[in-house]
Amino acid sequence: MERSLRRLQSAGRLDSEDPDIQLHLAITAHEVGEFTLERQLLQQLAADHPDLAAAQQRLGVLLLEEGKLPAAEQAFQAVIQHGPQMPEGYVGLADVRIRQGDYQVAVNLLEKAIELDPKYQGAHFLLGSAYQRLGMTNKALPHLKLGAGARTRFVKDSLRIRADQYDVSTKARLARGIQFMVDRQAAQAATEFQKVLQAEPDNVTALSNLAGVFVQQNRLAEARQLLNKSLEIDSTKHATYVNLANLAALEGDLQKALEWADRGVELGSNAELPYRVRANILLQMERLEPAYDDALRAVELIPNDPQALEQCGDLAYRLRKLGDARTYYNRALRIDSRRPIAWIGLTQVNMTAGQFAEAKQTLANAQQLAPQHPAIKILSDRLDRLRSN
Amino acid sequence: MNYLRKKRLLTLVGLTLIAITLAGGCNREPGSNESTPATVTPSSTTPWFTDVTQDSQLNFSHVRNTNVKFWLPEITGGGGGWIDFDNDGDYDLYLVQSGELDPAKPNPHANQLWENLGNGTFQDVTDHADVGDRGYGMGLAVGDYNGDGWEDLYVTNVGPNVLYRNNGDGTFTDVTAAAKVDVPAWSSSAMFVDYDDDGDLDLFVANYIRWSPASEVACFNGRKEPDYCAPTGYNSPTVDRLFRNEADGSFTDVTESAGLSAAFGNGLGVAAADFNLDGRLDFYVANDGNPNQLWIQNEDHQFTDQALLSGCAVNRSGAAEAGMGVAPVDLDHDGDCDLFMTHLMDESNTLYMNQNGVFDDASAASGLAAPSLQFTGFGMGFHDFNHDGRLDLFVANGRVTHALNPLSDDDTFAEPNQLFSSQADGTFQEVMPRGGLGHELLETSRAAAFADYDLDGDVDIMVVNSGGTVRLFRNDAGSQGDWIRFRILNTSGHDAVGARVRLTTNKRTYFRSVQRTYSYLASNEPEVHFGLEPGETVTDVTVIWPNLTEQSFGSKTTGQRHRLVQEDRP
């Protein structure tokens, strides 16, 4: 306790009057488990600087944990007053209302928060909880699924914002680039990786990631150049071979793609992805049995990846293992019921099995999720023909 | 289909990118220090418990590994529990050893069975009983699976589990192969329970992760030193197992057909109860770092995971927490089972109140959240330790990584255990000194198992410490009030796990349920215990059997143990 206090106090001497420094002391106190000290610092900050939304929100979260609802409400009201554009205040107040049983008011607050930030996972989860308690299960479930896996979110304080603006660390840039990749914002992702490479030209992770961006943008020659360089620097990264395999497959050289994929599997035998990529290549080579083996291995390694399960479903279907195909598609849908590929696959299984009523239903589900998907029109026409026969 | 192929390939490329940068160290637990708790009761002049380990002659030390390698099992084990193996009416102890983790080397350390001699002391009878399994042990389950009147023993390991059949003469026989309950995985908690209501005991086994020494990954703490990884760092969640008793000495693995393979997790704690009061037993699994599962049993003995919709999969912010131990308990006396589970430091322990099948996180309002933030909880149990009519709570704590500020110079994982006294308004206050002893102990505790080992009516506690000695805490607070105990047996003579007892007194109505497996890697006494205020008399005892049939046993005398047996089915 004393050691931590000394450390914290010496940090505080940087500028004991600066509320940003004080806030960071509170955050540090939390991180080293000094919850009492954290509360004292936050309470003092909230009293001295009621407009400091980041401190008010942290205090509100802490008070909620202690079950002190009126005090927490006061803190979140201050966040809303001084930062009406910050969704965290509405989410905190909604949490108070849910605990008080005032679910409809909570719903209104959470809708406001989601309007401000549609990707706020914690807001979705609480909205689902509020709907569930209002007996609106159908409305609850999508929000609960969107929100599951959330982390408590804190208002960014000014030091953090400033640090982000000047943050040039490789790790931060890579993380941002990957997030852009996941969000399919290829241009922004490329910018981040290129900035890393300006500082560290031999960074294999940035090279491989940028190659992936170029593949997304169909800039295949540039991607190849980067991957070759990546190989020269470090020839032991299975991900480089996986990306090379993908690249060769897109260029139509399946034999070469298979060679790269084999190497990827050899180096990354405990990773799911090399198996999935090789399964795709084998599928394109119409070697269904070994493709299925690879797909099964991928599911064994990561049992709850819906994409891997869909791949197993697809290959099982092609091998006319209809029961297995159904099982894998259903498993993918249990994890995420909003997957059009799984619904389309299930439709194919149902149609082949002659279960047309079920096929109609699964196709409708797919259509609702991805009305423009080209497979839907084909399946719909085929289903009509089969039913009329 | 070309379109689909191309789209998939593109998606895979995106995933590849993520796979590269996820590699790296993981630090699971920030540092801690000795902070003042949020709520405490004033020091009591008389401690609730006395450490009688030495007097009891219990002499068992848990061994994490002969050569510490920062492999995850090292920091996870430490199980044990109560079993009346010799049918003499008192509870004996089975202690699960870990030991040598390298599969290429023999394990010099074995599990141990300690016979309760009835005079406050225990005697090691492992060799005679032949139950000294040398697998890398985790937990255990106790139950009379073959219906011969003698309690049998199932031991979970990192590696194959073992079923010991009680021969009724002080010895056991390893019948794992014949019973077909070998689970070649890393199993944690397990329980015998008659889930299909056919009169015999089935077996549920929680599995933690798919692990082998080859799958170990390097993790580092905040000081950049090697440390233990979080289970999610292995990205290897797995399925739990359900074995149906075939009543011929063997079991059938019905995991797939019962639908239990539909969700994966890092299972550590398991509980069984009829959570939605439909006359069928359900299972709840506390997962470490993944959403918990609430397996609701359907009419055809199939199970569906309803945890997310029921509000008990993740915390109230939507985050999956590090579920360790779990206990089903009816804290608000409304007839259904609420849930309490222990978590990692900086994640409060969670109390979910069951409101018609939907769970409300009442941790903060109960006063149990804030005092738990600074500790990592494992074993726990709710019992009326001081016989005032209200359920108190004991929590066994111990860290899982080398924290920044160790509380003990001898053991960097050590933390104090905690005792919470139930208040008249339904909230809890922590009892000081921590743990309810005369002085605070700093140890790395895992299993906490509960039983009246000295047959004085109140509930005592056994705690297994990871890499340390076992502890026996004798309850000295129970003498303040009165008590009554029930052994609840179904028509086949098994402890009717999941049956509920409605006890009506001249002052109030209580609900408790028959539970043998709760806490963490533990087995507890099967008796249902009620603490009573002085002068409180029992006017009726009614058992609500798992299939919802009710049977009244009328008034009963306090200060005694009673056996209540289900009447034959029509």
List keywords for this structure.
heterodimer, A: 389 residues, mainly alpha, 23 helices, flat, B: 570 residues, mainly beta, seven-stranded antiparallel β-sheet, five-stranded mixed β-sheet, 6 helices, 37 strands, 7% helix, 34% strand, globular, disordered N terminus
Radius of gyration of chain A: 26 Å
The H-and-E topology of chain A, N to C, reads as HHHHHHHHHHHHHHHHHHHHHHH
The biggest beta sheet of chain A is recorded as: none
Question: Which overall shape of chain A is indicated by the principal axes computed on the Cα atoms?
Answer: flat
The number of helical elements of chain A comes to: 23
Any overview of this molecule?
With 389 residues, chain A is mainly alpha-helical. Chain A has 23 helices and no strands. The model of chain A has no long low-confidence stretch (mean pLDDT 87). Chain B is globular, with a radius of gyration of 23 Å. In chain B, 61% of the residues are buried. At the A-B interface, helix 3, helix 6, helix 8, helix 9 and helix 11 of A face helix 1 and helix 6 of B.
Write the layout of secondary structure elements.
The complex is a heterodimer of chains A (389) and B (570).
Chain A: H1 2-12, H2 19-31, H3 35-48, H4 53-65, H5 69-82, H6 87-99, H7 103-116, H8 121-133, H9 137-147, H10 158-166, H11 170-182, H12 186-199, H13 204-216, H14 220-233, H15 238-250, H16 254-267, H17 272-284, H18 288-301, H19 306-318, H20 322-335, H21 340-352, H22 356-369, H23 374-388
Helix pairs in contact in A: 1-2, 2-3, 3-4, 4-5, 4-6, 5-6, 6-7, 6-8, 7-8, 8-9, 11-12, 11-13, 12-13, 13-14, 13-15, 14-15, 15-16, 15-17, 16-17, 17-18, 18-19, 19-20, 19-21, 20-21, 21-22, 21-23, 22-23
Chain B: H1 2-21, E1 49-51, H2 53-56, E2 79-83, E3 92-96, E4 112-116, E5 122-124, H3 126-129, E6 136-143, E7 152-166, E8 172-174, H4 176-179, E9 185-193, E10 202-207, E11 219-220, E12 226-227, E13 241-245, E14 251-253, E15 267-273, E16 282-287, E17 293-297, E18 303-305, H5 307-310, E19 326-329, E20 338-341, E21 350-355, E22 358-361, H6 363-366, E23 377-383, E24 392-397, E25 418-422, E26 428-430, E27 445-451, E28 460-465, E29 471-475, E30 482-489, E31 500-505, E32 509-513, E33 522-523, E34 528-532, E35 538-544, E36 550-552, E37 561-565
Parallel strand pairs in B: 2-33, 30-37
Antiparallel strand pairs in B: 1-29, 2-3, 3-4, 4-5, 6-7, 7-8, 7-9, 9-10, 10-13, 11-12, 13-14, 15-16, 16-17, 17-18, 19-20, 20-21, 21-22, 23-24, 24-25, 25-26, 27-28, 28-29, 30-34, 31-32, 31-35, 35-36
